Fold these 3 entries.
Entry 1:
Amino acid sequence: MRSGRWSLPEAARKAAAFGIKIAGYPAAFFNSLMLGNAFAEAPMGHPVPDEIGFQDAVTPIAEEIHHFHDWLVLPIIIGICIFVAVLLLICIFKFNEKANPTPSRTTHNSFLEVAWTILPVLILVVIAIPSFRLLTHQLVIPASDMTVKVTGKQWYWSYSYPPDQGGGFEFDSAIKADADLKPEEGDIRQLSVDNEAVVPVGKTIRVQVTADDVIHSFVIQAFGIRIDAVPGRLNETWFKAEREGMYYGQCSKLCGRDHAYMPIAFRVVSPEAYATWLADAKKKYASNSTEPLHLAGNETAESIRK
């Protein structure tokens, strides 16, 4: 299954192409829920204005997250909301003073008391079983093809490629200043960075995450990964991108003054393109040792903030 996402005008246009009459955006929203996957667009890897739903999933874990939400959690939420709304309407119209001038003196109903205790437990069990399976798939890291170490700093990221996998270098990745953006080349304000992390498509990537100063959170929605970067602790996650493209994320912890200005940018390329990039990166970052270069990194981030 592939999860789709749609802007409201786009949902209206595409639904109309199927002969569906839509009057306004609320109807477009309803039809997008019914027909969303049929209207899936090419992955964009970043949020767009007026979109509905998640970003396109490009990893098995992200697909599983979307399926869990779309086909289990969301129907349960909608069902509970409808059930409660019906109960409220019954109370409003059947038990108001005019319709029911003599109120019931009932104080106990054993069946109802058992039902509203057992039913929520059963609902939670139904949710728990697939959620535990999803958590297991997220936390149990399969045999990886390569490893990338990510270090969160105030307020940028550092990426380290290990020597035993053809790397032996690291680099800082900070947000591009507005003056340096080139929209014609695909730059996006508050998401594009000066140095992108690059990984090959179809490979299992182990991501080791830590921090130098305060707690950050490493999140890439299209990959379905979210993990805290904690000083003094090495956390791990993984992803396997199945489509090439540019994918963005952001720190989701309130990590200080420039929390909103430390985006994450991963470019997924073919194995051949990755080999070319790796050779070029080893030359470009040859002066960078495998130890963090705090001074150079702070100077880069500070210059961008100015």
Note: Residues 6-52 form one domain.
Entry 2:
Amino acid sequence: MSEEPLLSLPLRALETLSRPTFQMPSGGWDTHVHVFGPPDRYAHVDKPHYTLPDGTLGQYRSLMRQVGIEKFVLVQPSYYGTDNSCLLDTLIDVGDLARGVVMIEPEISEAELDRFHRCGVRAVRLDLFKRARESLAAIKSYITEMAARVGPRGWHLQFYAPGYVVRDLIQFFRKLQIDFVIDHMGYMLEEDGLRTEDFAALLDLLGSGRCYLKLSGAYRIAKHRGYEIVEPIAKAIVERAPDRAVWGSDWPHISYSDRDTGELVNLLERWAPSESARRKILVDNPRRLFGVP
């Protein structure tokens, strides 16, 4: 496998994006956004998986006006590792328009976590792709440790994980005493050996009262197929637990920079035909999850 990073291409031109085909609710949230800053100010990790993406705060603010999003959640990208400087500076800049999801080392100090909280951070991102080759016991221990660090602050956990790891953790997740979000609808790809019964078990997890599934990454699930491949998955989540689903664009669509963010917004009209369900997904659920009054 080549160690050369993926080449980040320019974003699709704003004027070419689709307009919303439904009335966006007031106060709607995009719960999965990455923002990048100047390389002379924010250093990337050694050997990042991709080159510096085209994705500044200014570009995203323009996108918000285009598609009708009013609030957003900044998610720490792997490009910066556990140096959350860019994310924190952006949170300070935008104030109550956003909340943050950081990546941290287990030994981070309480004072640093307190500082993050004051900036608007309300969750920690656990990248289980990086730990996929570890034993299940080691992964569970890591999750338990992180939950103990951030749970007392009212934060939640956000899992970026391959579907086969999600599958293997479902019984463990049932006992987790902290709210948590699983990105990209569980990322249960058929090509990774996931089956219908695995997704059914994931849907059952929504009844635990602590699990949320993020309606995001449709193009990552579909890959080179059409979005119709993803529709039954998204609809099943919404029908099963509209109170436990949130939506995220995954902007700036790293390595998929030509994607039409407006089209991703409009998928919600098919996934959640009910206006009341869309309001839960876009407004009520994110506010509850991120502790917004």
Note: The chain has a mean pLDDT of 95.
Entry 3:
Amino acid sequence: MTALGDEIKPMSNGPHMHAMVLERAGEQLKPVKLPIPVPGAGELLLKVQACGICRTDLHIMDGELTEPLLPLIPGHQIIGRVDKVGQNVTGFHPGDMVGVPWLGWTCGECAYCISGRENLCDLAAFTGYQRNGGFAEYCTADAGFCFSIPEDYPATKAAPLLCAGLIGYRSLKMAGNGKRLGIYGFGAAAHIVTQMALWERRDIYAFTREGDEAGQSFAREIGAAWAGGALSRPPVELDAAIIFAPVGELVPTALRAVAKGGIVVCGGIHMSPIPSFPYELLWGERRIVSVTNLTRLDGEEFLELALRIPVHTEIEVFPLGHANEALAALRAGKIRGAGVLVP
């Protein structure tokens, strides 16, 4: 796996790239000029076409996720064109369009990996966290964890599928088959999940930040049957709820909103502490489950489904050098749909 620390050195006259680098938690990203990385055995060198931004990037920058490779190039929703193919790679060729997700490598040998639960591998390495990501003009990726992307799918539109879409898909599966689905936090993942749920003939009840009338309007435009503030009671009892907002206080709120037998799915990688709540909110065979990463099977299933529905991603595009401004807009809830960086 490529380590950024080995790449930060004075530039020669050789090939180079521009990247946005996190040097320390709590700081903004810095524009850096680096050598173009060389793919190792089993790796692809990709010329980045687009990279989505994600709340996980904020959790890494803020130090809430505590095991990053530093200094680090973030970004884990990458669409790239294969520039070079490393040794022992089959199935990919220069010029191919590929997608790179959060799950960047697993051991393939532990009990989780061999039982189809590679998302739980204790030794897993993650793109834009322990592997350098796509906030750059080039990146490397393990070919075994890349997905083929159709040539006619615009890179900026495809990028959010690689995390917002994948985590949304896994969260929707965890939520069961109930008809009335609540979604707390209506951002990139939610607007993709809504399209999948509507295709399955479910009803969507969207919860946004209090007073976020623009977000509620967006949810209704996408097809939500109802939209309101996060603390509002929906007009009906829900069969399930998915929480994308990283706010632990929403767990008891969602439990109050679901009917007996209902499921509350925590879809984020990080959440603030969940406050204590009376047992009666859980009683009635209500359940709380979390979604952890993704598997490659999730990716294959979701990308096929996204093309079949088809899923249309609402995006706002930012130049790579404006990554800090894009992330600030994401933090403030001012991005409609998904934010995407382009070199």
Note: Residues 73 and 177 are 38 Å apart (CA to CA).
